[in-house]
Specification:
The protein is α+β, with helices and mostly antiparallel strands and 225 residues long. It has 3 helices and 14 strands. Bound molecules: 2-acetamido-2-deoxy-beta-D-glucopyranose.
Length: 225
């Protein structure tokens, strides 16, 4: 009996199957798999192993390719993020921070307003000595300005300029009260190195204190090349 079992197992290994019927054991030869090559028929055990190795190799190749692709995409994303962080630019300044209202003007000609009180100067684009904001890189910038003056018979007027060319003029010249104020908001496309200024215009004056009636604000909305 033991020999028979052993024989059965051996037969199974070599592709023969023993079935049992009422009439005793019947030998059956397994039908060859048409998909297998003749080499596989000759040595089925090592052929299966070979196919398995092939599949493992394909899988490894697939994983390797996926990892390379993922690494590339991660690097692209990191570069973009670093670029965004490096190009951050935002400034916001006010004329002064005095306890008492202090005025500049009236002036004889166009004069760059030097805002002395800095709220924010991210990227150091604004120069507190000259009053000039220099765009650190090309892009679309949002600019916002307010002016205020408080002297009888003296108007408040200024001009927001890019490289000396007016973008928006702020004007309050005619009125019954001494208080004059105005504001402007603009989105402009600047090239790296472009200079943005607020210019006090001829015969006009502005006044400020800790209330920050005069502000000059700009920030990079998004960078372009
Ligand atoms: C997959 O990458 C590993 C590590 O770089 C390498 O050893 C292996 O040969 C690669 N496998 C394939 C199938 O390219």
């Amino acid at each position: 009996m033991r020999a028979l079992v052993l024989l059965y197992l051996l037969h199974a290994v070599f592709g023969q199957v023993t079935k049992y019927s009422w009439y005793g054991p019947v030998q059956e030869v397994r039908a060859p798999d048409p998909a297998l090559s003749s080499a596989c028929l000759a040595d089925q055990t090592s052929c299966g192993c070979c196919l398995m190795k092939k599949n493992i190799n394909y899988m490894e190749m697939y994983f390797n390719q996926s990892i390379v692709e993922m690494k590339n995409q991660l690097m692209t994303a990191q570069t973009a993020l670093n670029d965004m962080r490096a190009s951050r630019s935002a400034f916001s300044v006010a004329l002064n921070n005095q306890v008492f209202l202090t005025c500049i003007g009236p002036v004889n000609s166009d004069t760059v307003i030097i805002y002395k009180h800095v709220f924010l100067n991210l990227g150091n684009g604004y120069n507190v000595q000259t009053g000039v904001f220099t765009a650190p890189r090309s892009g679309v910038y949002s600019l916002a300005v307010t002016i205020y003056g408080n002297k009888a018979n003296l108007a408040s007027c200024a001009s927001l300029q890019v490289n000396g060319i007016a973008v928006a003029r702020l004007n309050d010249q005619i009125g019954q009260d001494p208080e004059d104020s105005n504001s402007a908001v603009a989105a402009v496309k600047l090239n790296a190195g472009d200079k943005v200024t607020m210019n006090l215009l001829k015969n006009c004056l502005i006044c400020d204190d800790f209330n920050h009636f005069n502000t000059f604000t700009g920030f990079l909305l998004y960078a372009t090349n």
